């Protein structure tokens, strides 16, 4: 999803990297990770401490002088060097400002707390500047020295954290718990301070994903979770206090109060929290645990994951090892330090989500606001699903690397749907349905999981549930609440869609009729593929997979919004976004990966020339960095697959040239290393696939298209034991083109790899050269 505000492109020197010959296999991939990548240029990432798929993510909350905002989508942007705390939860790469979470910012403050921090509406007093020179971000650890003299050193496990706060010798040390100050505000919050036992507990009742989106309005300013926390200290608490709105209570130990979900002046000065004070010069170690279930759950999570004698160094070292072990599942040989940095940081961002959502005892908060337990055999309940984004690249990489997590994720989504009147929401934040974006992305997601060998979920139940939603109109299908952008229905105006065989622009109760038609066509194709594996009759779904043709206007040669009476929306230009969702007709016209030959046919044999014009300007120069509605946009999802369409059109060398150009010029190192919103790892996943030289052909299938491998050798280990090896020893900046390919020692002329390569493993050897070749026939359409 695209961020709605601009960003500042900045550069950062690469971190110190291990001395290692470039022709050797990378032995410590975590050393190449830079968590600051994407923190500028609207990548909307954050640099804080987190474990793979972690529940807790301890990272700064920045401020530009407005306590009801952060100046960043997810709490941190590289050009904002003032913070008002370190929050415990984050969403990586979500594209609205603010995005979500940012719960319980904890601010180390030096001085007397003599006014309400909530009354400091411009963050003039209870905040601090910092310099990037005093900041270190590594996998599993975040360290920064603030201008107020406090050094904060943070490390985490999956559900808990430990932080060292070293205060200066002069001034009163305090930790401020801004319990109500989540990024989007809160409905309520509460805090209790037990000075005698050196303990603070509390919670925030919140939600409101993308709460400021004008097109969501009040529809998305709603509560769907309460986050509990428990914190303890190794130093005596010498003073306490609480605040509510503009009133401070020195010596107070308990208070409540939320901020609401309004913005600016309508919210400023509202909220509650508390503080604890220590002796001057104190070095305070704080242990903290969180839970979405209960206060006791937070206590149990903390006790299970961080012992009382745990140190930041110990937890950080364990976290680094955890990341190293995960990243080692993809081992690369060769490449420059910059390429390795970009590659492993992208893989790091991919593995941040989905997020563990259950406590150590298996309990979790459902979408019905009730407490549930894991299903038999389920190892974790995972929350947060940026469906419209993730189903195009991220979920395939997740299934490829971690099929058991993909299965638990699928089961989690199914369970959330069962708790939500059978409705699969297209964008879940934690457990909360937010309705963001368009289409029905759960269908292609689970269908892809099934195709890629993911088995540990209730496939029959999930399939039947998704087919029911695709065939029986639900009560919300004609609800315009939140439209456009956050329309309530899973399959909006389904009966009209089934009758017309397209989504009418003037009667679809959706973001855009043409986009909805394309998304539904792909979703139905995916369901048909999955149903066939399950032995179902899928002819109707397969037919519906071709309905994309009903919004293709041959008179103009593009996808186009169409009215209920069958006429076309007037005023068409290829750059129009009328009928589309965060994209133009020029981009969406290519969104038919399930039928590339069919798309080529309706274009009258002109598809290759037209695709060339999508990636080049009128003078023939590359135009792959975005900025034009008529050309490829690497920052947003509807067109991410288009560089790979050349394979389906029989000119695979153009895929190789185009993907290599994007890899080399669009992605990079430092804060500006991502071209746009990472959207829960989606842009990062695209890069990982492109650098490997493979990409999923279409959702609902497991075939992989072949591109231009960046590294001489890649060894990929699936968590189920299957091994994949890609060898391209001659690859270089000059040698970008595939001359020949062998799969398990046998020559292969197709520019795609069969499903068995993923499910059973194998080795490909790719001979690379400096000139385009005729290698690679068109993939088979399914």
Automatic annotation (TrEMBL):
InterPro entries in alphabetical order: 6-hairpin_glycosidase_sf, GH-type_carb-bd, GH92_a_mannosidase_put, GH92_N, Glyco_hydro_92, PNGase
PANTHER family xrefs: PEPTIDE N-GLYCANASE PNGASE -RELATED (PTHR12143), SECRETED PROTEIN (PTHR12143:SF39)
Keywords: Hydrolase, Signal
GO MF: hydrolase activity
Organism annotation: Kribbella koreensis
Coiled coil: none
Pfam families with a match to the protein in the record: Glyco_hydro_92, Glyco_hydro_92N
Domain Glycosyl hydrolase family: 297-769
Protein name stated in the entry: GH92 family glycosyl hydrolase
Signal peptide segment: 1-21
Taxonomy of the source species: Bacteria, Bacillati, Actinomycetota, Actinomycetes, Propionibacteriales
Residue stretches making up the Glycosyl hydrolase family 92 N-terminal domain: 32-291
């Amino acid at each position: 999803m695209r961020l709605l505000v601009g960003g500042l492109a900045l550069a950062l020197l690469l971190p110190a990297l291990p001395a290692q010959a470039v022709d050797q296999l990378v032995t410590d991939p975590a050393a190449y990770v830079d968590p600051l990548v994407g923190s500028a240029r609207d990548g909307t990432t954050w640099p804080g401490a987190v474990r793979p798929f972690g529940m807790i993510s301890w990272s700064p909350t920045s401020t530009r002088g407005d306590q009801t905002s952060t100046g960043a989508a997810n709490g941190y942007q590289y050009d904002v060097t003032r913070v008002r705390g370190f929050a415990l939860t984050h969403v990586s790469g979500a594209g609205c400002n603010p995005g979500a979470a940012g719960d319980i910012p904890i601010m180390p403050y030096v001085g007397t707390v003599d006014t309400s921090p909530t009354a400091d509406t411009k963050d003039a007093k209870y905040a601090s500047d910092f310099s990037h020179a005093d900041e270190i971000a590594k996998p599993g650890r975040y360290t920064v020295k603030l201008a107020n003299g406090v050094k904060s050193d943070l490390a985490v496990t999956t559900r808990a954290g430990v932080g060292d706060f070293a205060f200066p010798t002069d001034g009163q040390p305090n930790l401020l718990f801004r319990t109500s100050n989540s990024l989007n505000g809160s409905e309520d919050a509460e805090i209790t301070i037990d000075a005698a036992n050196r303990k603070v507990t509390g919670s925030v009742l919140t939600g409101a994903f993308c709460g400021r989106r004008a097109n969501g309005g009040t529809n998305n300013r709603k509560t769907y979770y309460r986050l509990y926390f428990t914190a303890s200290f190794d130093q005596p608490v010498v003073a306490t206090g609480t605040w509510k709105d503009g009133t401070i209570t020195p010596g107070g130990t308990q208070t409540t109060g939320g901020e609401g979900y309004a913005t600016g002046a309508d919210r400023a000065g509202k909220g509650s929290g508390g503080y604890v004070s220590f002796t001057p010069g104190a070095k305070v170690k704080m242990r903290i645990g969180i839970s979405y279930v209960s206060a006791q759950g937070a206590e149990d999570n903390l006790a299970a994951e961080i012992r009382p004698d745990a140190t930041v160094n110990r937890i950080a070292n364990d976290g680094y090892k955890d990341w190293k072990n995960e990243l080692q599942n993809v081992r690369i040989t060769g490449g420059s330090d910059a390429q390795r940095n970009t590659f492993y940081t992208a893989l790091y961002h991919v593995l941040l989500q989905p997020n563990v959502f259950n406590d150590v005892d298996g309990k979790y908060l459902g979408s019905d606001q009730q407490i549930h337990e894991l299903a038999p055999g389920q190892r974790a309940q995972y929350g947060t699903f940026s469906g419209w984004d993730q189903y195009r690249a991220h979920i395939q990489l997740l299934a490829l690397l971690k099929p058991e997590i993909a299965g638990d994720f699928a089961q989690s989504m199914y369970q959330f749907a069962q708790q939500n009147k059978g409705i699969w929401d297209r964008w879940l934040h934690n457990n909360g349905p937010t309705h963001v974006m368009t289409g029905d992305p759960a269908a292609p997601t689970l269908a892809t999981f099934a195709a890629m060998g993911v088995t540990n979920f209730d496939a029959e139940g999930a399939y039947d549930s998704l087919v029911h939603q695709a065939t029986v109109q639900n009560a919300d299908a004609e609800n315009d609440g939140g439209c456009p952008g956050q329309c309530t229905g899973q399959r909006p105006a389904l009966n009209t869609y089934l009758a017309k065989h397209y989504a009418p622009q003037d009667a679809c109760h959706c973001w855009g009729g043409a986009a909805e038609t394309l998304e539904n066509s792909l979703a139905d194709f995916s369901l048909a593929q999955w149903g066939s594996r399950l032995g179902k009759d899928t002819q109707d779904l397969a037919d519906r997979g071709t309905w994309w043709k009903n919004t293709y206007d041959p008179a103009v040669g593009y996808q186009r919004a169409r009215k209920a009476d069958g006429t076309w929306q007037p005023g068409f230009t290829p750059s129009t976004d009328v009928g589309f969702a965060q994209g133009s007709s020029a981009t969406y016209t290519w969104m038919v990966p399930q039928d590339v030959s069919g798309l080529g046919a309706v274009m009258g044999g002109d598809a290759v020339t037209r695709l060339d014009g999508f990636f080049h300007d009128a003078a023939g120069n590359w135009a792959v960095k975005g900025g034009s509605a008529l050309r490829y946009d690497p920052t947003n999802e509807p067109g991410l697959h288009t560089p790979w369409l050349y394979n389906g059109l029989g000119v695979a060398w153009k895929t190789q040239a185009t993907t290599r150009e994007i890899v080399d010029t669009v992605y990079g190192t430092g804060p500006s290393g991502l071209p746009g919103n990472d959207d829960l790892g989606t842009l990062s996943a695209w890069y990982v696939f492109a650098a490997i030289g493979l990409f999923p052909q279409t959702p609902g299938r497991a075939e992989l298209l072949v591109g231009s491998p960046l590294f001489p050798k890649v060894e990929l280990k699936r968590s189920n034991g299957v091994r994949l090896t890609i060898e391209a020893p001659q690859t270089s900046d000059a040698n970008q083109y595939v001359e020949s390919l062998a799969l398990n020692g046998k020559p292969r002329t197709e520019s795609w790899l069969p499903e068995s390569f993923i499910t059973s493993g194998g080795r490909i050897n790719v001979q690379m050269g400096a000139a385009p070749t005729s290698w690679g026939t068109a993939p088979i359409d399914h």
